[in-house]
Amino acid sequence: MSEAAPQFRGARWLMVSPMGPDQLSGKDADGYGNASTPVVYDKLGAGIGDVILYVEGAEAMQPFDFPIPLDAISVALLDHYQFTPPNP
After folding, report:
1. Would you place residue 74 in the very low, low, confident or very high pLDDT band (cuts 50, 70, 90)?
2. Could you tell me if residue 45 is left (phi over 0), alpha (psi between -120 and 50 degrees) or otherwise beta?
3. CB burial class (10 A; 0-12, 13-18, 19+) of residue 6?
4. Measured between alpha carbons, how far is 18 from 54 in angstroms, rounded to an integer?
5. What is the DSSP string of the chain?
6. pLDDT tens-digit profile of 2-27?
7. 56 CB contacts (<8 Å, ≥6 apart)?
8. What is the CATH code of the structural domain delimited by 11-78?
9. Cβ atoms < 10 Å from Cβ of 84
């Protein structure tokens, strides 16, 4: 058994389904988008069915003292959101 890197202790990894306009507006009943499924580092305690905001790339490493191999991190748990589609 390998031990986790110290900066990753106390958190977990989530597979998330990014939401597009159809999921955000409620047009897609199942709520799953067609985008790729990223693996997101989560220290906020998100659970199944929770809606989160996450960032990718260099911004995902900002909470850490030095660069670590991380592509995406959760930054907010949403209680409620409102989506207004852009006008074409």
Report:
1. very high
2. left
3. exposed
4. 10
5. -PPPPGGGTT-EEEE-----HHHHHT-STT---SS---EEEESS---TT-EEEEEEGGGGGTTSSS--S-SEEEEEEES-----PPP-
6. 566 777 788 899 999 998 888 888 88
7. 38, 71, 72
8. 2.40.50.220
9. 7
**Domain assignments of the chain as residue spans, ordered by start:** 11-78
Going by C-alpha positions, the residue among 24, 33, 16, 30 that lies closest to residue 86 is 24
User: Which residues, 6 or more positions from 67, have their beta carbon under 8 angstroms from its beta carbon?
Assistant: 61
pTM of the predicted structure, to 2 decimals: 0.80
In contact, 71 and 62? CB cutoff 8 Å: no
Q: Which residue has the tokens 């067609």?
A: 34
Alpha-carbon distance of 8 to 11, in angstroms, equals 6
